[in-house]
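Tokens as discussed.
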């Protein structure tokens, strides 16, 4: 059985890291797996990227060009919007020249694959959804508009009041293409994304399975907190609150504003660590001392940081299956987040963290203080790691993926299907 993992990049985003971990887990299970990307950053020989300078140069500009159609909407929100209309990509031609049984798509935006080109893929397709883009009219998160259930138009993300706007046209293109793809199987990485995909007009007739991202719990494991803090020159006499995400302070969906409000209500003597963002030129006016660590590019550095913190806060307004939550829990650090999206798949309320009422900053602050003042904090930490080892460890999860691949190739039912 030969598997091809396809993602825009190999290690430079949350979706990329999740796809790459799946690829490595397959190799560790003696499955013949390769990874095909538009932009390669690692030196892994099993990851296939462009080799010519011309193609590499073109691929730098494809994400910028892919955004141009949405740029004419002057009232659009900061939420990412992808049109997937660029021609000239050679990715599908590469796929069809490779001798593979399953093409496993992940995050394929940034001008990587044109919607219409998906129908040209000859092998069976599995598509893991890292956000909502596959079944919307172009937005990666719908900002709770719900138009994907019927048809897009009057797009909230575009700031449009026109029925036949760009989102309606992209949705129509997807409907035409997907209806011709009998070889497509969809994976929702969280229960929330399984449900939303199933209720969408584009995937309501498509097999949708629920399988999470895998994580190597040998890599992400607790280390001594004193040692971890020493490595980052963090104080030993303070309780440390960690917040982190790609574009942590610039993407409104990540909840930085909500975090600021919540921390204003926290009376504990805490200090904040911000991962994924360097210190801004304009002060954020936190009442708590803040350490900006920028981006960390390897799992060991992340593991040390999670272990250094007393608590991880993930205040996202919409979230699939957060790598940060899973990684933090695996390192024995409890997590507080809003009860949205896939957060409840991992955070068990007052068992390994705290699920605050959606968008309620007061309850988020309450959750932060509840964890920090827990009389049995060690149990929270133990429960956090046990949850991940029990449900998300690579050795457990990869068996389910292999079972799914076999069921598709053998045209047999898949027993772990999650259907609402």
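Sequence:
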């Amino acid at each position: 059985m030969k598997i091809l993992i396809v993602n825009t990049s190999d290690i430079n985003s949350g979706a990329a890291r999740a796809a790459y971990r799946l690829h490595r887990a397959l190799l560790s299970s003696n499955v013949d797996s390769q990874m095909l990307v538009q932009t390669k950053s690692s030196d892994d020989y099993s990851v296939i990227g462009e080799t010519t300078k011309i193609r590499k140069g073109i691929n730098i500009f494809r994400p910028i060009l892919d955004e141009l159609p949405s740029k004419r909407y002057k009232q659009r929100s900061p939420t990412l919007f992808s049109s997937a209309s660029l021609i000239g990509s050679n990715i599908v031609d590469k796929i069809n020249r490779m001798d593979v049984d399953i093409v496993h798509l992940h995050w394929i935006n940034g001008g990587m694959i044109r919607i219409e080109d998906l129908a040209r893929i000859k092998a069976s397709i599995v598509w893991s959804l890292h956000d909502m883009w596959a079944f919307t009219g172009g937005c990666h998160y719908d900002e709770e508009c719900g138009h994907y259930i019927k048809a897009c138009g009057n797009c909230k993300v575009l700031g449009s009041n026109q029925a036949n706007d760009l989102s309606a046209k992209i949705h129509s293109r997807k409907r035409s293409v997907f209806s011709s793809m009998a070889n497509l199987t969809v994976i929702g990485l969280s229960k929330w994304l399984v449900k939303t995909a199933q209720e969408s007009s584009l995937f309501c007739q498509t097999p949708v399975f629920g399988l999470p991202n895998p994580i190597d719990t040998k890599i992400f494991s607790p280390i001594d907190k004193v040692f971890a803090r020493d490595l980052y020159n963090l104080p030993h006499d303070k309780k440390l609150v960690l917040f982190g995400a790609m574009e942590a302070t610039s993407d409104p969906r990540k909840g930085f504003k909500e975090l600021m409000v919540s921390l204003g209500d926290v009376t504990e003597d805490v200090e904040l660590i911000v991962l994924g963002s360097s210190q801004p030129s304009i002060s954020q006016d936190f009442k708590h001392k803040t350490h900006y660590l920028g981006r960390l590019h390897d799992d060991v550095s992340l593991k040390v940081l999670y272990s250094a913190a007393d608590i991880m806060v993930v205040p996202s307004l919409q979230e699939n299956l957060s790598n940060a939550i899973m990684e933090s829990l695996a390192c024995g650090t409890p997590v507080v987040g809003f009860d949205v999206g896939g957060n409840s798949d991992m955070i068990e309320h007052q068992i390994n963290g705290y699920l605050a009422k959606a968008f309620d900053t007061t309850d988020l602050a309450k959750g932060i203080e509840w964890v920090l003042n827990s009389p049995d904090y060690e149990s929270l930490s133990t429960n956090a790691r046990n949850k991940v080892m029990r449900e998300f460890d690579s050795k457990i999860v990869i068996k389910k993926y292999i079972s799914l691949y076999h069921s598709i190739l053998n045209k047999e039912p898949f027993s772990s299907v999650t259907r609402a």
